[in-house]
Amino acid sequence: MPVSVTRTTITTTTTSSSSTIVGSPRALTQPLGLLRLLQLISTCVAFSMVASVNAWTGPMGNWAMFTWCFCFAVTLVILIVELGGLQARFPLSWRNFPITFACYAALFCLSSSIIYPTTYVQFMAHGRSRDYAIVATTFSCVACLAYATEVAWTRARPGEITGYMATVPGLLKVFETFVACIIFAFISEPFLYQHKPALEWCVAVYAICFIMVAVTILLNLGDCTNMLPIPFPTFLSGLALVSVLLYATAIVLWPLYQFDQRYNGYPRRASDASCTYTHTPHSVCFWDRRLAVAILTGINLLAYVSDLVYSTRLVFVKV
């Protein structure tokens, strides 16, 4: 049965598991309200524990601290809006904003729960600071599960009329932009792609697809889909198809020019001089970066293919 998806100007049909009583403290006693309280407490404990012992120096620690503070702040805003019944006055589409944020927050906390302990905590000396960092990592995992649960509770069900970001293609777009951001982090060294047109094309592919998907998300959050010169369903299908074609070129060119000796690539990790000496705990050698980008390119290609397939199953209605 197809999922009925509105343009973002239509009232959302919610499920009983995600319904709350807005404009009243009773909203906090509902399942979704209690879940958001858990998110708030978990992220608060995570950044408080790390801040109290100053265990967040370096890029990895900074990312983890940003993640927990950002998720705490936005979750607090969402709770205030729902407690005050201010959804109609919120500048963004309330049918799309909470689930979009919950999906990003789940991915952010997941990344911090993996990156922070593996690149930072394990290199800390045993003691109070390390214990606090471990506790912070534990609560980061709890927050990740809480945000993922919210996504599972509030996503669109077959036959529902809901905002686009609550559908599978909408959630896939959040995932696609997140993966693209990780790719950008790995290719932050221009040395990895400069002076090779094929690799520069791959970087252009990552940037173009990221921008197009980000624009789509912003159009939905701002209730601006009716400003497009073409119908929104046509725009989505065209975007998914173009992204699949572009990523199909990148999944061939990036590994070919990075790992094939015929194109001055490095087929083995040992052949990369940057991986033959001991690195600082927070660094990633160039060969590992190349491999990570190749894997993430494949993951994002699969996401775009799924996006294209699921987009054809959506039914857009106007009311």
Question: What does the model show?
Answer:
The protein has helices at residues 31-52, 58-84, 97-119, 128-154, 168-186, 197-221, 232-259, 286-311, and strands spanning 3-6, 161-162, 314-317. It is mainly α and 319 residues long. It has 2 domains: 24-157, no CATH class; 167-318, no CATH class. A 3-stranded parallel beta sheet has the order 2-1-3, with no helix packed on it. Helix 1 runs antiparallel to helix 4, helix 3 runs parallel beside helix 5 (168-186) and helix 7 runs antiparallel to helix 8.
Primary descriptors:
2 domains, flat, disordered N terminus, mainly alpha, 319 residues
Radius of gyration: 21 Å
Give the helix proportion (percent range). 55-70%
Strand content: under 5%
Sheet with most strands: 3 strands, parallel
SS field, number of helical segments: 8
Q: Low-confidence parts, pLDDT < 50 over ≥5 residues?
A: 1-22
Spatial arrangement of strands, main beta sheet:
2-1-3
Q: Roughly how many Å apart are the termini?
A: 20 Å
What is the overall shape?
A: flat
Q: How many strand units? A: 3
Summed up, the domain count is: 2
Q: How would you name the oligomeric state of the polypeptide chains in this document? A: single chain
SSE class? mainly alpha
Overall average pLDDT: 85
InterPro entries: Marvel (IPR008253), MYADM-like (IPR047123)
Organism: Cricetulus griseus
Pfam families: MARVEL
Subcellular location: Membrane
